[in-house]
Specification:
The protein has about 375 residues and is α/β, with parallel strands linked by helices. It contains 12 helices and 16 strands. The strands form 3 sheets. The protein has an 8-stranded parallel β-sheet. It has a 6-stranded antiparallel β-sheet with strand order 9-10-11-16-13-14, with helices on one face. A two-stranded antiparallel ribbon has the order 12-15. The structure holds beta-D-galactopyranose (GAL).
Protein backbone atom coordinates (compact mmCIF):
# COMPACT_ATOMS: atom_id res chain seq x y z
CA UNK A 1 0.00 0.00 0.00
CA UNK A 2 1.06 3.60 -0.59
CA UNK A 3 0.54 6.06 2.28
CA UNK A 4 0.19 9.47 0.66
CA UNK A 5 -0.29 11.63 3.76
CA UNK A 6 1.12 11.59 7.30
CA UNK A 7 -1.16 9.31 9.35
CA UNK A 8 -3.38 11.03 11.93
CA UNK A 9 -4.89 9.44 15.00
CA UNK A 10 -4.58 8.74 18.71
CA UNK A 11 -2.15 6.45 20.54
CA UNK A 12 -2.64 5.16 24.08
CA UNK A 13 0.95 5.41 25.35
CA UNK A 14 1.46 9.05 26.35
CA UNK A 15 -1.49 9.08 28.71
CA UNK A 16 -2.11 5.48 29.73
CA UNK A 17 1.26 3.72 29.42
CA UNK A 18 0.72 0.14 30.64
CA UNK A 19 -2.74 0.88 32.12
CA UNK A 20 -4.63 0.17 28.95
CA UNK A 21 -7.88 -1.81 28.72
CA UNK A 22 -11.02 -2.39 26.70
CA UNK A 23 -13.02 0.31 28.47
CA UNK A 24 -10.35 2.98 27.92
CA UNK A 25 -10.01 2.05 24.25
CA UNK A 26 -13.73 2.01 23.56
CA UNK A 27 -14.43 5.28 25.35
CA UNK A 28 -11.50 6.86 23.52
CA UNK A 29 -13.00 5.62 20.24
CA UNK A 30 -16.30 7.26 21.24
CA UNK A 31 -14.44 10.47 22.06
CA UNK A 32 -12.68 10.51 18.69
CA UNK A 33 -16.06 10.65 17.02
CA UNK A 34 -17.92 12.87 19.51
CA UNK A 35 -15.17 15.48 19.71
CA UNK A 36 -14.91 15.84 15.95
CA UNK A 37 -11.43 14.31 15.77
CA UNK A 38 -12.41 11.69 13.20
CA UNK A 39 -14.14 14.30 11.05
CA UNK A 40 -10.95 16.40 11.20
CA UNK A 41 -8.88 13.49 9.87
CA UNK A 42 -7.73 11.63 13.01
CA UNK A 43 -8.68 8.14 11.89
CA UNK A 44 -6.28 5.67 13.57
CA UNK A 45 -6.80 4.52 17.13
CA UNK A 46 -3.59 2.76 18.20
CA UNK A 47 -3.11 0.54 21.26
CA UNK A 48 0.55 0.69 22.32
CA UNK A 49 2.59 -1.72 24.47
CA UNK A 50 1.25 -3.95 27.31
CA UNK A 51 -1.89 -5.33 25.67
CA UNK A 52 -0.97 -9.05 25.50
CA UNK A 53 -0.50 -11.99 27.82
CA UNK A 54 3.06 -12.40 29.11
CA UNK A 55 3.49 -15.58 27.06
CA UNK A 56 2.27 -16.74 23.69
CA UNK A 57 -0.55 -19.30 23.44
CA UNK A 58 0.14 -23.02 22.90
CA UNK A 59 -0.23 -22.47 19.13
CA UNK A 60 2.52 -19.82 19.20
CA UNK A 61 0.11 -16.94 18.65
CA UNK A 62 -0.09 -13.69 20.58
CA UNK A 63 -3.12 -13.45 22.84
CA UNK A 64 -4.75 -10.41 24.40
CA UNK A 65 -4.56 -10.11 28.20
CA UNK A 66 -8.00 -11.43 29.28
CA UNK A 67 -8.15 -9.12 32.28
CA UNK A 68 -7.55 -5.99 30.22
CA UNK A 69 -9.45 -7.16 27.14
CA UNK A 70 -12.03 -9.70 28.38
CA UNK A 71 -13.78 -9.98 25.01
CA UNK A 72 -10.58 -10.39 22.99
CA UNK A 73 -8.95 -8.07 20.49
CA UNK A 74 -11.22 -8.80 17.53
CA UNK A 75 -14.13 -7.49 19.60
CA UNK A 76 -12.22 -4.24 20.25
CA UNK A 77 -11.24 -3.93 16.60
CA UNK A 78 -14.86 -4.46 15.53
CA UNK A 79 -16.01 -1.73 17.90
CA UNK A 80 -13.36 0.69 16.66
CA UNK A 81 -14.34 -0.06 13.07
CA UNK A 82 -18.04 0.37 13.87
CA UNK A 83 -17.21 3.97 14.77
CA UNK A 84 -15.70 4.57 11.34
CA UNK A 85 -12.16 4.51 12.75
CA UNK A 86 -9.15 2.38 11.84
CA UNK A 87 -7.47 0.15 14.38
CA UNK A 88 -3.78 0.08 15.26
CA UNK A 89 -1.68 -2.18 17.45
CA UNK A 90 1.89 -2.53 18.67
CA UNK A 91 4.65 -5.12 18.59
CA UNK A 92 8.44 -5.18 18.57
CA UNK A 93 11.32 -6.38 16.38
CA UNK A 94 12.95 -8.06 19.38
CA UNK A 95 11.76 -11.18 21.23
CA UNK A 96 10.31 -8.89 23.91
CA UNK A 97 8.61 -5.52 23.70
CA UNK A 98 10.02 -2.59 25.64
CA UNK A 99 7.75 -3.46 28.58
CA UNK A 100 8.81 -7.13 28.30
CA UNK A 101 5.72 -8.61 26.69
CA UNK A 102 6.29 -11.06 23.81
CA UNK A 103 7.74 -9.37 20.70
CA UNK A 104 7.57 -10.56 17.11
CA UNK A 105 11.18 -11.65 16.52
CA UNK A 106 11.10 -14.99 14.66
CA UNK A 107 7.27 -14.83 14.73
CA UNK A 108 6.83 -12.14 12.09
CA UNK A 109 4.60 -14.10 9.73
CA UNK A 110 2.34 -15.65 12.35
CA UNK A 111 1.93 -12.27 14.06
CA UNK A 112 1.17 -10.47 10.81
CA UNK A 113 -1.49 -13.12 10.16
CA UNK A 114 -2.94 -12.64 13.66
CA UNK A 115 -3.08 -8.87 13.23
CA UNK A 116 -4.74 -9.24 9.83
CA UNK A 117 -7.32 -11.67 11.27
CA UNK A 118 -8.18 -9.23 14.05
CA UNK A 119 -8.67 -6.43 11.52
CA UNK A 120 -5.60 -4.38 12.37
CA UNK A 121 -4.95 -1.43 10.01
CA UNK A 122 -1.75 -0.01 11.53
CA UNK A 123 1.20 -1.62 13.32
CA UNK A 124 3.70 0.30 15.44
CA UNK A 125 6.87 -1.77 15.60
CA UNK A 126 9.40 -1.06 18.35
CA UNK A 127 13.11 -1.91 18.59
CA UNK A 128 13.76 -3.05 22.19
CA UNK A 129 15.73 -6.24 22.87
CA UNK A 130 16.57 -6.75 19.20
CA UNK A 131 19.32 -9.36 18.82
CA UNK A 132 22.63 -7.54 18.39
CA UNK A 133 23.74 -10.09 15.79
CA UNK A 134 21.05 -8.94 13.35
CA UNK A 135 20.89 -5.64 11.50
CA UNK A 136 17.89 -3.47 12.33
CA UNK A 137 17.30 -3.01 8.65
CA UNK A 138 16.79 -6.74 8.18
CA UNK A 139 14.54 -7.06 11.23
CA UNK A 140 12.25 -4.31 9.97
CA UNK A 141 12.26 -5.77 6.48
CA UNK A 142 11.20 -9.16 7.87
CA UNK A 143 8.05 -7.62 9.27
CA UNK A 144 7.68 -5.42 6.20
CA UNK A 145 7.58 -8.52 4.00
CA UNK A 146 5.22 -10.32 6.39
CA UNK A 147 2.79 -7.38 6.41
CA UNK A 148 2.95 -6.93 2.65
CA UNK A 149 1.92 -10.58 2.33
CA UNK A 150 -0.69 -10.83 5.08
CA UNK A 151 -3.67 -10.11 2.85
CA UNK A 152 -4.65 -6.84 4.53
CA UNK A 153 -3.52 -3.24 4.09
CA UNK A 154 -1.62 -2.40 7.28
CA UNK A 155 0.29 0.86 7.76
CA UNK A 156 3.74 -0.08 9.05
CA UNK A 157 5.08 2.34 11.64
CA UNK A 158 8.75 1.69 12.48
CA UNK A 159 9.97 2.81 15.90
CA UNK A 160 13.75 2.50 16.13
CA UNK A 161 14.13 5.99 17.63
CA UNK A 162 16.38 7.21 14.79
CA UNK A 163 19.31 5.02 15.90
CA UNK A 164 21.85 3.40 13.53
CA UNK A 165 20.96 5.81 10.72
CA UNK A 166 17.32 4.69 10.63
CA UNK A 167 16.48 7.46 8.18
CA UNK A 168 18.76 5.97 5.54
CA UNK A 169 17.62 2.34 5.57
CA UNK A 170 14.05 2.48 6.86
CA UNK A 171 12.46 3.46 3.52
CA UNK A 172 13.64 0.16 2.01
CA UNK A 173 12.06 -1.99 4.71
CA UNK A 174 8.41 -1.42 3.91
CA UNK A 175 7.85 1.06 6.76
CA UNK A 176 5.52 3.95 5.96
CA UNK A 177 6.83 6.05 8.81
CA UNK A 178 9.89 5.90 11.03
CA UNK A 179 10.38 7.25 14.51
CA UNK A 180 13.35 9.56 14.38
CA UNK A 181 13.81 10.35 18.06
CA UNK A 182 13.72 9.00 21.57
CA UNK A 183 10.46 9.28 23.50
CA UNK A 184 8.76 12.66 23.76
CA UNK A 185 7.75 13.95 27.19
CA UNK A 186 5.22 16.55 28.10
CA UNK A 187 7.66 19.43 28.56
CA UNK A 188 8.84 22.34 26.47
CA UNK A 189 12.45 21.09 26.70
CA UNK A 190 11.46 17.80 25.07
CA UNK A 191 9.50 19.49 22.26
CA UNK A 192 12.36 21.88 21.58
CA UNK A 193 15.00 19.17 21.56
CA UNK A 194 13.06 17.05 19.06
CA UNK A 195 12.23 19.99 16.81
CA UNK A 196 15.80 21.27 16.64
CA UNK A 197 17.17 17.78 16.17
CA UNK A 198 14.86 17.05 13.24
CA UNK A 199 15.28 20.19 11.13
CA UNK A 200 18.31 18.83 9.33
CA UNK A 201 16.58 15.49 8.67
CA UNK A 202 13.80 17.07 6.64
CA UNK A 203 15.33 15.80 3.45
CA UNK A 204 14.81 12.18 4.49
CA UNK A 205 11.02 12.41 4.86
CA UNK A 206 8.68 11.83 1.94
CA UNK A 207 5.20 10.51 1.16
CA UNK A 208 4.97 6.80 1.98
CA UNK A 209 7.89 7.12 4.42
CA UNK A 210 7.35 9.95 6.89
CA UNK A 211 9.64 11.14 9.63
CA UNK A 212 7.69 10.41 12.82
CA UNK A 213 8.73 12.94 15.48
CA UNK A 214 6.69 10.99 18.08
CA UNK A 215 3.21 11.38 19.44
CA UNK A 216 1.83 14.79 20.32
CA UNK A 217 1.77 15.95 23.93
CA UNK A 218 -0.75 18.73 23.20
CA UNK A 219 -3.35 18.86 25.98
CA UNK A 220 -1.54 16.69 28.53
CA UNK A 221 -0.85 19.60 30.91
CA UNK A 222 1.52 17.50 33.02
CA UNK A 223 -0.85 14.53 33.48
CA UNK A 224 -0.43 10.94 32.26
CA UNK A 225 2.33 8.45 31.59
CA UNK A 226 4.62 10.71 29.49
CA UNK A 227 3.98 13.73 31.68
CA UNK A 228 6.73 15.95 32.95
CA UNK A 229 6.28 19.62 33.68
CA UNK A 230 3.44 20.14 31.20
CA UNK A 231 3.35 23.05 28.75
CA UNK A 232 1.40 26.24 28.14
CA UNK A 233 -1.16 26.47 25.35
CA UNK A 234 1.24 28.72 23.46
CA UNK A 235 3.88 25.97 23.62
CA UNK A 236 1.39 23.32 22.55
CA UNK A 237 0.42 25.51 19.55
CA UNK A 238 4.06 25.81 18.54
CA UNK A 239 4.56 22.05 18.97
CA UNK A 240 1.52 21.26 16.83
CA UNK A 241 2.49 23.79 14.14
CA UNK A 242 6.02 22.40 13.92
CA UNK A 243 4.92 18.78 13.66
CA UNK A 244 2.43 19.85 10.97
CA UNK A 245 5.06 21.76 9.01
CA UNK A 246 7.63 18.99 9.17
CA UNK A 247 5.15 16.37 7.84
CA UNK A 248 5.22 14.35 11.02
CA UNK A 249 2.31 12.00 11.63
CA UNK A 250 -0.18 13.71 13.96
CA UNK A 251 -0.86 11.11 16.64
CA UNK A 252 -2.60 12.63 19.64
CA UNK A 253 -1.37 11.45 23.04
CA UNK A 254 -3.56 13.28 25.57
CA UNK A 255 -6.70 11.93 27.24
CA UNK A 256 -9.21 12.71 24.51
CA UNK A 257 -12.13 11.80 26.78
CA UNK A 258 -11.44 15.00 28.72
CA UNK A 259 -10.05 17.70 26.45
CA UNK A 260 -10.06 21.39 27.33
CA UNK A 261 -11.49 23.87 24.83
CA UNK A 262 -7.98 25.19 24.20
CA UNK A 263 -6.75 21.67 23.40
CA UNK A 264 -9.61 21.10 20.99
CA UNK A 265 -8.93 24.43 19.27
CA UNK A 266 -5.31 23.41 18.71
CA UNK A 267 -5.83 19.82 17.60
CA UNK A 268 -8.80 20.67 15.40
CA UNK A 269 -7.39 23.74 13.64
CA UNK A 270 -8.32 22.83 10.06
CA UNK A 271 -5.79 25.14 8.43
CA UNK A 272 -2.82 23.73 10.35
CA UNK A 273 -4.01 20.19 9.64
CA UNK A 274 -4.31 21.13 5.95
CA UNK A 275 -0.63 22.15 5.87
CA UNK A 276 0.34 18.76 7.28
CA UNK A 277 -1.98 16.84 4.96
CA UNK A 278 -1.34 18.85 1.78
CA UNK A 279 -1.79 16.69 -1.30
CA UNK A 280 1.46 17.76 -2.98
CA UNK A 281 3.41 16.11 -0.15
CA UNK A 282 6.32 18.54 -0.53
CA UNK A 283 8.73 18.78 2.35
CA UNK A 284 9.37 22.07 4.14
CA UNK A 285 12.15 24.44 3.13
CA UNK A 286 13.99 26.84 5.35
CA UNK A 287 13.65 30.47 4.34
CA UNK A 288 16.93 32.31 4.43
CA UNK A 289 17.06 34.75 7.33
CA UNK A 290 20.78 34.88 7.86
CA UNK A 291 20.97 31.20 8.80
CA UNK A 292 23.35 28.82 7.14
CA UNK A 293 20.85 26.15 6.17
CA UNK A 294 19.26 23.13 7.78
CA UNK A 295 22.21 22.41 9.98
CA UNK A 296 22.15 25.82 11.58
CA UNK A 297 21.01 25.06 15.14
CA UNK A 298 19.27 28.43 15.44
CA UNK A 299 16.57 28.79 18.05
CA UNK A 300 14.46 30.87 15.74
CA UNK A 301 13.85 29.98 12.12
CA UNK A 302 11.35 30.46 9.32
CA UNK A 303 9.94 27.52 7.39
CA UNK A 304 8.02 27.43 4.13
CA UNK A 305 6.06 24.79 2.24
CA UNK A 306 4.71 25.08 -1.28
CA UNK A 307 1.14 23.84 -1.22
CA UNK A 308 -0.69 21.89 -3.90
CA UNK A 309 -2.89 24.88 -4.86
CA UNK A 310 0.07 27.28 -5.22
CA UNK A 311 -0.22 28.86 -1.77
CA UNK A 312 2.85 29.02 0.41
CA UNK A 313 2.67 28.02 4.06
CA UNK A 314 5.03 30.13 6.14
CA UNK A 315 5.92 29.45 9.76
CA UNK A 316 7.96 31.78 11.97
CA UNK A 317 9.15 29.79 14.95
CA UNK A 318 10.82 31.11 18.06
CA UNK A 319 12.06 28.38 20.39
CA UNK A 320 14.16 30.81 22.47
CA UNK A 321 13.29 31.95 25.98
CA UNK A 322 12.82 35.59 24.96
CA UNK A 323 10.63 37.29 22.33
CA UNK A 324 12.30 38.01 19.01
CA UNK A 325 11.61 39.87 15.81
CA UNK A 326 11.50 37.61 12.74
CA UNK A 327 11.11 38.42 9.08
CA UNK A 328 10.15 36.91 5.75
CA UNK A 329 11.51 38.31 2.53
CA UNK A 330 9.66 37.58 -0.72
CA UNK A 331 13.01 37.51 -2.53
CA UNK A 332 14.27 34.74 -0.28
CA UNK A 333 11.07 32.82 -0.85
CA UNK A 334 11.70 32.81 -4.59
CA UNK A 335 9.28 35.63 -5.36
CA UNK A 336 11.59 38.26 -6.82
CA UNK A 337 10.35 41.87 -7.16
CA UNK A 338 10.39 41.62 -10.95
CA UNK A 339 7.60 39.01 -10.87
CA UNK A 340 5.05 41.70 -10.04
CA UNK A 341 3.63 39.44 -7.35
CA UNK A 342 3.31 39.73 -3.62
CA UNK A 343 1.65 37.78 -0.82
CA UNK A 344 -1.49 38.06 1.24
CA UNK A 345 -0.71 36.43 4.53
CA UNK A 346 -3.55 34.67 6.30
CA UNK A 347 -2.74 33.95 9.94
CA UNK A 348 -4.08 30.45 10.58
CA UNK A 349 -4.18 30.89 14.36
CA UNK A 350 -5.74 34.38 14.61
CA UNK A 351 -7.63 34.57 11.30
CA UNK A 352 -6.03 37.95 10.49
CA UNK A 353 -5.20 38.80 6.84
CA UNK A 354 -2.15 40.94 6.08
CA UNK A 355 -1.22 42.25 2.62
CA UNK A 356 2.54 42.38 2.18
CA UNK A 357 3.13 45.87 0.82
CA UNK A 358 6.88 45.65 1.29
CA UNK A 359 9.27 42.96 0.21
CA UNK A 360 9.89 42.22 3.84
CA UNK A 361 7.32 41.26 6.43
CA UNK A 362 8.44 41.36 10.00
CA UNK A 363 6.78 40.75 13.32
CA UNK A 364 7.50 39.93 16.92
CA UNK A 365 7.18 36.31 17.91
CA UNK A 366 6.85 35.57 21.63
CA UNK A 367 9.15 33.21 23.51
CA UNK A 368 8.31 29.56 22.65
CA UNK A 369 5.77 30.89 20.15
CA UNK A 370 5.07 30.92 16.44
CA UNK A 371 3.18 32.73 13.70
CA UNK A 372 1.85 30.52 10.94
CA UNK A 373 0.48 31.88 7.69
CA UNK A 374 -1.08 30.47 4.59
CA UNK A 375 0.08 32.96 1.94
CA UNK A 376 -1.67 33.59 -1.35
CA UNK A 377 0.36 34.79 -4.32
CA UNK A 378 -1.35 37.90 -5.76
CA UNK A 379 -0.52 40.65 -8.27
CA UNK A 380 0.97 43.79 -6.72
C1 LIG B 1 9.23 2.90 23.42
C2 LIG B 1 8.55 3.72 22.35
C3 LIG B 1 7.34 4.39 22.97
C4 LIG B 1 6.40 3.32 23.51
C5 LIG B 1 7.16 2.41 24.49
C6 LIG B 1 6.31 1.23 24.92
O1 LIG B 1 10.33 2.27 22.89
O2 LIG B 1 9.45 4.67 21.86
O3 LIG B 1 6.69 5.21 22.01
O4 LIG B 1 5.89 2.59 22.44
O5 LIG B 1 8.34 1.93 23.91
O6 LIG B 1 7.00 0.39 25.79
Amino acid sequence: MFVQKPPMGWNSWNTFGPDINEEVVMRSADAMVENGLLAAGYEYLVIDDCWSKRVRGADGRLEADPEKFPHGMKHVADYVHSKGLKFGMYSCAGPLTCARYPGSFDHEFVDAATFAAWGVDYLKYDYCFHPSTRRGEDLYRRMGIALANCGRDIVFSGCSWGVEDTKVWMPGTGCHLWRSTGDIHDSWASIKMIAQGQLADQIYGRPNCFNDMDMLVVGMYGKGHAALTGCTDEEYRTHFSLWAFLSSPLMIGCDIRNMSEATRAILLNPEVIAINQDGAGRMAFRIYDGNTGWNDPAQSFVLGRLMENGDIAIGLFNLADGACCQHVSTENLGLAVGTGRTLVLHDVWSGEDIVMNNEIFQCDVPAHGCRVFRAKVVEC
